Amino acid sequence: MYRNFFVTCVVAIIVFYRACRSYMEQSYFKEYYHLERVNWWFTVRRKILTERITHLLDHPTHISSLNVGAATGTTSDMLAQFGEVMSVEYDEDCCRFAQTVLSTPIIQGSITELPFANNSYDLVCAFDVIEHVEDHQKAMDELYRVCKPGGHIAITVPAYAFLWGPHDVINQHYRRYTMRGLLDLFGGNKGSVIYKTYFNSILFIPIALFRLAARLISMSGIKPSGESNSDHEIFGTKGIFNSILAGFFNIDYYLLKNNFRFPAGVSIMVFFKKN
User: Fold this and answer.
1) Are the beta carbons of 157 and 177 closer than 8 angstroms?
2) pLDDT tops 90 at residue 256
3) What percent of the chain shows pLDDT beyond 70?
4) How far apart are the first and last CA of the chain?
């Protein structure tokens, strides 16, 4: 009798725990879904990527795209205007959430072992993804493998190790890149880099000063109140400050649209054409 009661209690606790965990996960992903669609960095980056894909691929239509590391799918929605989109997300819980909000397919999988045949997609994208991967060369090789001959690989990554901060730690980055370091991953005989630039460059100096000041404070032994937060939490996702930052980042958009290439910035963007 007591044994059955004990087992019933344990089962009830497990069910309750799973229900609470599921609720918290869904709540988190709903917040991130909102963040990806209103935050200044996400919205303007998406605008820049849309324009660059349109320009560099000469107004593509009816192409097949693979979006690796899709998160809650804002870039998948963006890619859908160019044709069919398949998305991959490593985090199982995030993938399950994205399946409820996206109109295009998304599956759980790893960038280092993509579940697709060789030469499958016209455009293969990894927007701020490979910095999360320990073996980034293997990740890049997989992007190349599934890209069709004559197709394109589009990559964005965070730039410069000296900008490393709590944002990178919280987001589980392994590294930040220089242009040379990123280009080395592509290899010399597999195709050609058709476009490369730093971006988020108008805000580069204030962001660099902010990151360096935070590092100096940390090195001094002063403990700031509260826990370390990502940049998105610090700068917010709405209101006048979000609008001001979007306004400055939009200057990058207009300059890039007019074929200006930045020599430095907080991020790097590269388009590669496969032989």
Assistant:
1) yes
2) yes
3) 83
4) 71
Taking only the tens place, the pLDDT of each residue in 201-224 is 999 999 999 888 877 876 766 655
Distance CA 223, CA 218 (A): 7
Cβ atoms of 78 and 50 within 8 Å: the answer is: yes
Nearest-10 crossing angle of helices 40-56, 239-257: 20
Query: pLDDT per residue over 17-53, tens digit each?
Result: 333 334 335 677 889 999 999 999 999 999 999 999 9
- Bridge-partner residues for 147, per DSSP? 121
Q: Which of 42, 65, 52 is nearest to 269 (CA)?
A: 52
Total residue length of the chain: 275
Rounded to whole angstroms, the Cα distance separating 201 from 191 reads 28
Interior/surface letters 245-268, b for 16+ CB within 10 angstroms, e for the rest: bbeebbebbebbeeeeebeebbbb
| DSSP string for residues in 69-117 | S-TTSHHHHHHGGGEEEEEEES-HHHHHHHHHH-SS-EEE-BTTB-SS-
- Find where tokens 């709405």 sit: 238
Which two structure tokens, joined as six digits, stand for 110?
């790893």
Structure tokens at 208: 């660099």
Sheet containing 191-199, strands listed edge to edge, beginning at the edge strand earlier in sequence:
106-108, 83-89, 63-68, 121-127, 147-158, 267-274, 191-199
More confident residue, 211 or 138: 138
Q: Tell me the backbone φ, ψ of residue 201, rounded to 5 degrees.
A: -100, -30
Determine the residue type at 18: R
